[in-house]
Design a protein that fits this description.
The protein has 419 residues and is α/β, with parallel strands linked by helices. Helices cover 27% and strands 24% of the residues. 43% of the residues are buried. The structure holds pyridoxal-5'-phosphate (PLP). The site of pyridoxal-5'-phosphate has 20 residues, from helix 11. This is Diaminopimelate decarboxylase. Belongs to the Orn/Lys/Arg decarboxylase class-II family. LysA subfamily.
Length: 419
């Protein structure tokens, strides 16, 4: 194999003793490749980011819910959150017990709430009406409430999940009503939670939000835990030298805030965070093969087999992903040029990379789309009746295992009823 452009995976030894061109040939493309060692490292980074003793990291499985990866995350001592009954179901399949799952509901039906309750999973509600609904379904039980601390953060307006312009969380002005409903249904408020948004690269907004969250917590003296949310970012432009989030500095600030709050609160509560991306993004590279190269009115298009049905982040959020180039043949790339890399979906928005300078790409090259382990496979679809890809895992031993088979045409028949 020729390494045409492989800076990031060389540095991180992403492919261990494997060769991406051979992996693509053996398992087909597109294929999500995960590295177990990197996944474990990210879990440990977060577990050890503070010295505060009662600190729990919940992996936000919405970022990647492949059960094999969830099993690894669990073996690192993390717990999980869930955003739907389906996630609870998959998490249990991966071995998580009821008390290791935290269901953060949003506009859920009686049936969904009942499912979580019957599975013994703690539910967080995010509106007054949902709290009433919960009270009617499970009077006398434990519940949590997601508050909106009034501070948001994130890389795109679509992922800012707190502050004055989002649908999430309970506005603290409703605390008197919250107390009345808790009392009426004899509910115990076990915890409060927030999630201010996704992908912050400095912890400023996160730390700022803690002030508001703690002010809310002080109005509920019997809490067991406070969940501070996720959103910890990763550097998607690392090949250009983008620095990672300074976890050490952020950890120190969080530590200080937690110890100070505990003193004021009069005891040490459990504090939780619920990061998704930070844990799984960097352990995933999506391999794709180039099938066509063309010029359209002076623009060079590299056509590969990864459409937005396989990786949706670029079309949803204009997200940037680093791209590497691996080549099976001996032909070198003579020059660098600006290219647009597109997929095989019948939509002009099906663009993975726009106008980027890269070494010349040839048909048959394998592209490695970096940092694809979060919000990758989980957002994939059968749009255009295309098949969802396979997922493979490079184990710490260097062995490669398939952790999800590629779909087949027969899968497209599932649940269909013909006239
Ligand atoms: C409630 C909640 N918790 C956790 C997360 C995980 O966010 P991230 O992957 O940015 O850490 C999200 C993502 O949007 C979320 O909505």
């Amino acid at each position: 194999m020729q390494k045409i452009y492989t800076k990031v995976t060389d540095q991180t030894h992403f492919f261990e003793n494997q060769n991406p061109v051979e992996l693509a040939a053996a398992y087909g493309t597109p294929v999500y490749v995960y590295n177990e060692r990197i996944l474990r490292e990210r879990c440990r980074d977060l577990k050890n980011m503070v010295t505060y003793p009662k600190f729990v990291v919940d992996f936000s499985a919405k970022a990647n819910s492949n059960p094999a990866l969830l099993q690894i995350v669990r073996s690192e001592g993390l717990e999980v959150d869930a955003m739907s009954p389906g996630e609870i179901y998959i998490e249990k399949l991966a071995g998580f017990t009821s008390d290791e799952i935290f269901y953060i509901g949003n506009n859920v039906s009686d049936e969904e709430m009942q499912y979580a309750i019957s599975e013994g999973v703690l539910v967080s509600v995010d509106s007054i009406s949902q709290l009433e609904r919960y009270g009617r379904l499970a009077p006398g039980s434990r519940v949590a409430i997601r508050f909106n601390p009034g501070v948001g953060a994130g890389h795109h307006e679509k992922v800012v999940t707190a502050g004055k312009k989002t649908k999430f969380g309970v506005d603290p002005v409703f605390i008197p009503q919250v107390k009345e409903i808790l009392e009426r249904f004899q509910l115990t408020l076990a915890g409060i939670n927030q999630h201010i948004g996704s992908l912050f690269m400095t912890g400023d907004a996160f730390v700022k939000s803690l002030g508001s969250l703690f002010a809310i917590a002080k109005q509920f003296p019997e809490l067991e835990f406070i969940d501070m949310g996720g959103g910890f970012g990763i550097p998607y432009k690392k090949e250009d030298g983008e620095a990672p989030l300074d976890l050490k500095e952020l950890g120190m600030k969080i530590d200080e805030a937690l110890f100070k709050f505990s003193e004021q609160y009069g005891r040490q509560l459990t504090f939780r965070i619920e990061p998704g991306r930070y844990i799984s993004a960097e352990c995933g590279v999506l391999l794709s093969e180039v099938h066509s190269i063309k010029y359209n009115y002076n623009n060079k298009y590299i056509g590969c087999d990864t459409g937005f049905n396989v990786l949706s982040r670029p079309i949803l959020y204009d997200s940037y992903h680093g791209v590497e180039i691996y080549r099976g043949s001996d032909t070198p790339s003579e020059r660098e040029e600006a290219v647009t890399i597109v997929g095989n979906i019948c939509e002009s928005g099906d663009i993975l990379v726009k106008d980027r300078h890269l070494p010349e790409i040839q048909e048959g090259d394998i592209l490695g789309i970096l940092d694809a382990g979060a919000y990758g496979y989980v957002m994939s679809s059968n749009y255009n009746n295309r098949l969802r890809p396979a997922e493979i895992l490079i184990r710490e031993s260097g062995e490669v295992v398939v952790i999800r088979e590629r779909e087949t045409l027969d899968d497209l028949k599932n649940h269909l009823v013909l006239l």
